[in-house]
TrEMBL record:
<feature type="transmembrane region" description="Helical">
    <location>
        <begin position="376"/>
        <end position="395"/>
    </location>
</feature>
<keyword id="KW-0812">Transmembrane</keyword>
<feature type="region of interest" description="Disordered">
    <location>
        <begin position="1"/>
        <end position="39"/>
    </location>
</feature>
<keyword id="KW-0472">Membrane</keyword>
<protein>
    <recommendedName>
        <fullName>Integral membrane protein</fullName>
    </recommendedName>
</protein>
<feature type="transmembrane region" description="Helical">
    <location>
        <begin position="449"/>
        <end position="472"/>
    </location>
</feature>
<feature type="transmembrane region" description="Helical">
    <location>
        <begin position="264"/>
        <end position="285"/>
    </location>
</feature>
<dbReference type="InterPro" id="IPR029058">
    <property type="entry name" value="AB_hydrolase_fold"/>
</dbReference>
<feature type="region of interest" description="Disordered">
    <location>
        <begin position="764"/>
        <end position="806"/>
    </location>
</feature>
<feature type="transmembrane region" description="Helical">
    <location>
        <begin position="339"/>
        <end position="356"/>
    </location>
</feature>
<keyword id="KW-1133">Transmembrane helix</keyword>
<feature type="transmembrane region" description="Helical">
    <location>
        <begin position="297"/>
        <end position="318"/>
    </location>
</feature>
<feature type="transmembrane region" description="Helical">
    <location>
        <begin position="516"/>
        <end position="540"/>
    </location>
</feature>
<feature type="transmembrane region" description="Helical">
    <location>
        <begin position="560"/>
        <end position="582"/>
    </location>
</feature>
<feature type="compositionally biased region" description="Basic and acidic residues">
    <location>
        <begin position="1"/>
        <end position="11"/>
    </location>
</feature>
<feature type="transmembrane region" description="Helical">
    <location>
        <begin position="407"/>
        <end position="429"/>
    </location>
</feature>
<feature type="transmembrane region" description="Helical">
    <location>
        <begin position="201"/>
        <end position="220"/>
    </location>
</feature>
């Protein structure tokens, strides 16, 4: 009840505040208000409470809902009516969006969608290039096709477990079915109606079909809950041109049409995969000599329908992707509705066809899944190679020395997504096979390729450990080198070996972020080579007679069996840890928050390559920030500092790109602990590369960036000198004091990525940004700033020379 009263009181204050703002806008023409300044704070990864952000236990919600909202201190709720009280300070507001990523315990299960999220990231890692539209579209097409193979792989793995291992092998074997009473009604020993092989497969098909339906439902529900917020209408038309980021286009954060189209295609692909698992074994039996002609013809017609459906699905995925230059509200209603329904109809026909009585049909061996998984692995390898060629061509057109892996970050991440899908599929199949048949003698087991994929895990782990050892050695060497730099930063203080070592180690550990491209390069390359080796090994094993394997291939088979045993054990342990972590998140809020941090980084981008990926929170957060800034500046005519920390700085930059020029002229950007260039600029150069960040610097009125050498996430923006005044301030001191001083009588902590507002430089930069935004007061000259002024604090050095974008 108390929470409800606070919400009602906050909503009443919001309405009163909006009414007063509207009245001031009508009286003053909408552009000449009280001159009140606003600081809109946006938190970073991990989330924060409004009380922590505003440093006050009494807060009120100004606008928003329980998912994402803007808060103020209670005493600041009506600040616009008391401009005299805020003449020398801004009104702080906090935009809290952490519930978009870590507010619900069930989101821990989104870890199971990790391969889909990773392949979606690969779509946005395209190298920056001007022109070459067809090559750019080819890049997106290849990533979308890779995403489609992951959907087929996941549903195919579920079908392998349910149809092949459980219904075909275990239920069809008396020893295995006797050990699992829940399979008794499917066992031929019971001679029940469901014991026929086709009917057993029909019952088991409910599992992968239900999984496909669940993925469809989650994609639709999360779209309605998180991504259905429409961006603000713009009258300035589409933003674009040389050097401009696509994040400024009106339709960038509203991909409803593409997500709906891909959702229909992937749902149909999943249902067709299940239908093929039912129809193909029955059709193979009907094609035997002397089989019924009617069933044989029906099998051919059904398989032709499945092939036709697969061609249509691929065609839908190959259609052009996102339309970002305008707000596209249209929807391909007929396609979105009819394609999944047509696939469902084929699935029902396949169930009827497979369940038809066939005397003499008995389950033996494995279902024909080896060719399916082998074909998927080969297709994914070819797609990754083609994607690497396209990415190299794009990068060579406009080389960016800071781009991760020389523009090959997208293909590498796509390779990792395929590897994650293969490991998860193989791990589940291997674990279920071992559970159903503990002795390993009565069942044929999963397809050969899935067992060979387990054998590549031990050598891959050895390579990863070797790279980690190399990075640890380099970090240790850098920490030793940093000790001299730390001592040089504090020449007038007594040296403390332990304090110096801790600061130097923090700086060296922060530098590990810049080594991530090396790790990804080695892991992706090794994974690709081992994956192709596993595919070749599976083909050789499948086609080699048992007697030949005893001689020529004895050594290879022995090593492979050892690797498979170790890899299967590692997969089992990893899968148990994976599920345990997800279950723990139901009861542990800290675990939910940790998982939320992973999604803060991985789900920033819209779902452009895979509709079943976790939802994009930025499609809600960016319109929220844009609406708040535009309406507040329009109603009050005041100045606004958009203050973003960590991932919040990325949201702030994206929202600033979405503003109209008339609103940008009253907004300054203050970023701190920002990964804009260090992570996003290197891994997503097409959208956060040097040209894009330079365009943001030119378009927004003023921008300052703060960072520390001990920060593992944030870093300088590194804008070139020809794009205007400097944005980066010199690296902040961390810790604020080396030893004990009058201001810091106790040892100052090493802050790293957090608590930037505790540094006096934060308030100083905010004050100067507000001074540059003031229309009637000129910026102070360097000699008027007083003692303690950083050299170059005037507009010429700080990038806030009062440029107007209006």
């Amino acid at each position: 009840m108390e929470r409800k009263r606070r919400q009602d009181r906050g909503q009443g204050q919001e309405q009163a505040h909006q009414g007063r703002a509207k009245a001031r806008g009508e009286a003053g023409g909408g552009g000449q208000g009280s001159g009140t300044a606003l600081e809109l704070l946006v938190h970073g990864v991990g989330g924060s409470s409004p009380q922590e952000m505003l440093d006050d236990p009494r807060t009120v919600r100004v606008t928003g809902d329980d998912v994402a909202a803007v808060f103020r201190r209670t005493e600041d709720a009506d600040a616009e009516t008391r401009p005299a009280d805020y003449r020398d300070k801004p009104v702080p507001e906090a935009y809290v969006w952490c519930n978009l990523t870590s507010g619900d315990a069930t989101r821990a299960l989104w870890l199971l969608l990790l391969p889909f999220m990773v392949v979606n990231l690969a779509h946005w890692m395209r190298p920056a290039v001007t022109g070459r539209i067809r090559t750019v579209r080819l890049y997106g097409l290849l990533v979308r096709l890779a995403g489609l193979t992951l959907t087929v792989l996941l549903v195919g793995a579920a079908a392998e477990v349910a149809l092949d291992l459980a219904a075909w092998q275990c239920a069809g074997t008396a020893a295995c079915a006797g050990g699992h009473s829940w399979l008794g009604f499917l066992s031929p020993a019971e001679s029940g109606w469901w014991s026929a092989p086709g009917r057993r497969l029909t019952v088991a098909a409910l599992v992968p079909a239900a999984l496909t339906g669940l993925l469809w439902y989650l994609s639709l529900r999360t779209w309605r809950a998180y991504e259905s917020q429409q961006p603000m209408e713009r009258v300035d038309g589409p933003q674009g041109g040389a050097g401009c980021s696509a994040l400024g286009r009106p339709g960038f954060w509203y991909g409803r049409r593409l997500v709906a189209r891909l959702r229909a295609a992937h749902t149909a692909a999943g249902l067709l995969t299940v239908a093929a698992g039912l129809a193909v074994p029955a059709a193979r039996f009907d094609r035997r000599a002397g089989g019924p002609a009617v069933l044989g013809l029906a099998g051919w017609l059904l398989q032709a329908g499945l092939v036709t459906g697969a061609v249509v699905v691929v065609g839908v995925v190959c259609r052009r992707g996102r339309g970002e230059r305008f707000l596209d509200r249209t929807l391909d209603v007929h396609l979105v509705r009819r394609l999944p329904l047509a696939a469902l109809a084929l699935l029902l026909l396949a169930a009827v066809y497979a369940g038809w009585a066939r005397p003499g049909w008995a389950s033996a061996g494995r279902l024909p899944g080896d060719a399916v998984f082998g074909g998927l692995a080969a297709t994914q390898g070819l797609l990754v190679v083609a994607l690497a060629v396209v990415a190299h061509l794009l990068h060579r057109t406009a080389p960016d020395p800071r781009a991760a892996m020389r523009g090959l970050g997208g293909p590498a991440v796509a390779m990792l997504a395929c590897a994650l899908g293969g490991v998860m599929s193989g791990g589940v199949a291997q674990r279920v096979s071992d559970w159903l048949d503990g002795t390993g003698t009565s069942l044929a087991g999963p397809p050969v390729l899935l067992t060979w994929q387990a054998s590549v895990i031990p050598p891959l782990l050895l390579v990863v450990l070797a790279v980690c050892a190399l990075l640890a050695r380099r970090t240790w060497a850098r920490a030793r080198a940093e000790r001299a730099a730390v001592t040089g930063d504090h020449p007038d203080e007594a040296a403390d070996a332990g304090r110096t070592r801790r600061i130097a180690t923090a700086r060296a550990m922060a530098g590990l972020t810049d080594r991530v491209p090396l790790l990804v390069t080695v892991v992706a390359t090794t994974t690709f080579l081992l994956g192709m080796g596993a595919l070749a090994g599976a083909l050789v094993t499948d086609r080699t007679p048992a007697e030949a394997a005893e001689g020529t291939y004895a050594v290879l088979q022995g090593a492979a069996r050892t690797g498979q045993a170790v890899g299967s054990w590692l997969i089992g342990v990893g899968f148990i840890l994976f599920v345990t972590w997800g279950r723990r998140a139901y009861k542990d809020a800290s675990a939910r928050r940790t998982i939320g941090i992973l999604w803060d980084v991985g789900t920033f981008w819209p779902r452009a390559a895979h509709p079943f990926a976790p939802p994009c929170y930025a499609e809600r957060a960016v319109p929220d920030l844009t609406w708040r800034m535009a309406t507040w500046t329009r109603a009050t005519g005041g100045r606004l500092v958009l203050s973003g920390h960590s991932q919040g700085s990325v949201l702030a930059a994206a929202a600033a790109w979405q503003l109209e020029p008339s609103a940008r002229g009253r907004v300054a950007l203050l970023t701190y602990g920002s990964p804009l260039e260090r992570l996003y600029g290197r891994w997503f150069p097409a959208h956060f590369g040097p040209a894009s960040l330079a365009s943001l610097h030119r378009e927004i009125d003023c921008w300052r960036n703060l960072y520390r050498l001990t920060d593992p996430i944030g870093g300088p923006v590194r804008l070139p000198g020809d794009c205007g005044p400097e944005v980066d301030r010199e690296a902040l001191k961390d810790p604020l004091s080396y030893g004990r001083t009058t201001e810091h009588p106790l040892p100052a902590p090493i802050l790293g990525h957090g608590d930037y507002q505790a540094d006096p430089a934060f308030a100083e930069e905010r004050r100067r940004l507000l001074g540059r935004l003031r229309p009637d007061v000129p910026a102070p000259r360097p000699d008027e700033d007083g003692p303690g002024t950083v050299p170059g604090a005037d507009g010429g050095a700080h990038g806030c020379a009062g440029r107007s974008s209006a």
